[in-house]
Structures are given as structure tokens and as C-alpha cells.
Write a structure and sequence with these properties.
Blueprint: E1 15-19, H1 25-37, E2 53-57, H2 68-71, E3 73-77, E4 84-88, H3 89-95, H4 97-106, H5 113-119, E5 122-124, E6 138-139
Parallel strand pairs: 1-2, 1-6, 2-5
Antiparallel strand pairs: 3-4
Helix pairs in contact: 1-4, 3-4
Length: about 140
Amino acid sequence: MSTYMPKAGDIRRKWYVIDAAGKPLGRVAVQAAILLRGKHKVTFAPHADCGDNVVIINCKDAVLTGKKLENKVWYHPTLYIGHMKKVNYKTLMAEKPCKAMELAVKGMVPDTTPGRTAMTRLHLFEGAEHTHAAQKPETWEL
């Protein structure tokens, strides 16, 4: 039996919508990462970029379980030597909920060329409205 090696022309990309309202942020991020990588497909190959496009709506309504809202912190450097900014997730979820979702998904996608390309197919929206209705996305249930 030979191993299936997908070629760029064989890959068919679909569009999926995930509703994050009332669901844990990490659970939504896991499903988005699986869809972006293409791990749900029978024709998955780790070296090939065979994932789908993912639209996540209602990012502002995603929840953090436990005490993560108060204790979890996002650290990122400034351009100055020795400077590090830290933002509490309570503030981050209130001001930039799409950034919090993007950070969660980015942590679950590998930091390789296919992983960075997969992140370009992630589309995040704070509310229930999105601009990708013309692509006829399917709803993905968690």
C-alpha cells in the first residue's frame, strides 16, 4: 500500500463558521486550529497545507473558565530594550476579544511555513455579522 501525497491542485478548501458565543475560548481555538490545518480530512498530510478557511463569530461572547479572567496575562515586548508589556485577560477580552482568540489559535498552529499560511485563512469577528456570506460557509458545531 502506498502513502497518499496530496498535491496543491488536489486540495479543495471549504469555508466553516464557528460560533463562539458562550463557549470556552480554548475549545473554540482547538476546533479552529484543526480546521485550519486540515486534520479533519482523510487526505491530511503534515507537510502539505491542506486546511480550510475558518470564520469565528461572536468572539466577544467567548468565556474563560476558572480564574483565568483575573490571573491569565498576555506578555508582549515593545521595541525598547528591556521593556515588556503585560495585559490582563480581563482587559484584553473587554477591549480586543478578537486578539485573544487569535493568540489562542496561533498557539495551537505550528510555527512553520504551512502554519503561518494557515493563520491567514482565519477570519475573526466580534459580533454575529461577518463579511464572508458570499463564500457560503458551513456551520461547524463543537
